Amino acid sequence: MEKKLKVAALKDGTVIDHIPSDKLFKVVHILHLDTCKNQITLANNLESKKIGSKGLVKIADRALAENETNKLALICPDAKINIIRDFEVVEKRPLVLPDEIREVVQCPNPVCITNHQPVQTRFFVLKENNKTKLKCRYCEREVKVEEVKIK
Ligand code: ZN
């Protein structure tokens, strides 16, 4: 019941729930919440039956863009996105990585063209036995999803 009330406190906007506690500030960083002027509520180290300890972000009057949900899918794939309208959860959006990610990830290869020219980065998303890897479309360098550098 208490959980419901916490979500209900937001009239319109986005709730990102079930963020692992150690990823909360990474989420703040990649969504640029430090400079966001909207009303933001952060909570961390909340009890979670599922993951032990979780963080939560509420952003009023903001929907997440596709590249933002892609970033979240890389950092905290098990987080849950709830879209709130008029105090109601109108949509629960699963975090799913597309087959290709553009712009979001920086290539780890120092000689890759994307690190020298104004070229949008493009990575193929490869899934092999439950592990996700990204492969640069330009230099073919592979990077584990846990090690990606997000722009
Ligand atoms: Zn590259």
Concise synopsis of the structure shown:
This protein has helices spanning 2-8, 24-30, 66-75, and strands at 13-20, 40-48, 52-60, 80-85, 88-93, 100-102, 105-106, 122-128, 131-136, 142-144, 149-150.
| Poorly predicted segments | none
Strand content range: 35-45%
What Rg, in angstroms, do the CA atoms define? Answer: 17 Å
- Biggest sheet: strands, sense, closure? 5 strands, antiparallel
Number of strands: 11
Q: Can you put this structure into words, describing what you see?
A:
By secondary structure, the chain is of the alpha+beta class. 16% of the residues lie in helices and 40% in strands. The strands form 3 sheets. Strands 2-3-1-4-5 form a 5-stranded antiparallel β-sheet, covered by helices on one side. A 4-stranded antiparallel β-sheet has the order 6-8-9-10, with no helix packed on it. A hairpin with a 3-residue loop joins β2 and β3. The longest helix has 10 residues, at 66-75. The chain starts with a helix and ends with a strand. Zinc ion binds at residues 107, 109, 112, 114, 136, 138-139, 141.
